[in-house]
Amino acid sequence: MLLTQTIPVLDLRDFYADAQKNDRRQAFIHQLGSALEDIGFFAVTHHGVDSTLIQSAYEAAQAFFTLPESAKRCYEEPALQGQRGFTAFGREHAKDHPVPDLKEFWHVGRSLPPDHPLAARYPANLSPLEVPQFATVMNQLYAQLEACAMALLKACALYLGEPESLLSDMMRDSDTILRVIHYPPIAPDAHPASLRAAAHEDINLLTLLCEATDDGLELLQRDGTWRSIRALPGQIIVDSGDMLQQITNGRLKSTTHRVVNPVDDRRRRFSMPFFAHPRPDVDLTPLSSCIANGAQLFPSITAGAYLQQRLREIGLAG
């Protein structure tokens, strides 16, 4: 049976179309912007992220998350506020949701040379010694996802009528995060209100979700119902986060989404969202081009201050 996607599907090759095929590029920009204005989600194919690399990353993830709890805990450092290394099961909860999510995860951030002006500001990545290939595979995946995110942010800027590099430049040298998530089998004593990931919005500019190992992702529609999003080979799911909604004064939507529990409680799920962040000093004041009738709907704030506020709300910062 042919499985079809439930959200718009775009082909990134259209954005790179040459001058003779400029209509394809313009159609891509319009489709991307319309999807983010309407539902805040789309899928992208031919995205430049190697499918073999994605599978290698999932194999490395499985090797790490099946280690004994005592071994995994060696890579959890509270001072890092969950921004690098391991975060244990049940530590994170959705904003305003009292029950922790049914997941554990690992964060990979940007690696900068020692002489870079931001090197001292970003924590160093950790690497699990028990899985030697982990760091190499995840760093390669990080680089490929970043290239894709940069292209999509350029298309966003053009859709808004702004210079092409406006949004992608905000991301350059930022502390963008690759999150490697393990959703273990559902325990018999799990809280009745607990979900693999309770309803939430992402904090950042754009999120790129590598094809997860199972379905479960759902987005909240305007009529209050939930739409299931398929995990299909060759597709990356993209959604706009709160920071993009903020800087566009609400024009591009940050849509509520969740990961529901499976019918078969014994099924594991792995996923790898890539959270494209701006640098901490970036001003998230809404763009003047997105302010209609002088109504600025979101306050002025830097990306760094915004992130710290949200980390406290989801339980990763004190």
Automatic annotation (TrEMBL):
Q: In which pathway does it act?
A: Antibiotic biosynthesis
The record's keywords, sorted A to Z, are:
Iron, Metal-binding, Oxidoreductase
Q: Name all Fe2OG dioxygenase domain ranges.
A: 173-278
The reply to whether Iron figures as a keyword in the UniProt entry is: yes
Q: Which InterPro entries does the UniProt entry name for this protein? A: DIOX_N, IPNS-like_FE2OG_OXY, IPNS-like_sf, Iron_ascorbate_oxido_reductase, Oxoglu/Fe-dep_dioxygenase_dom
An example Pfam family from this entry, by short name, is 2OG-FeII_Oxy
Q: Which family does it belong to?
A: Belongs to the iron/ascorbate-dependent oxidoreductase family.
What is this protein called in UniProt? Isopenicillin N synthase family oxygenase
What species is this protein from?
Stenomitos frigidus AS-A4
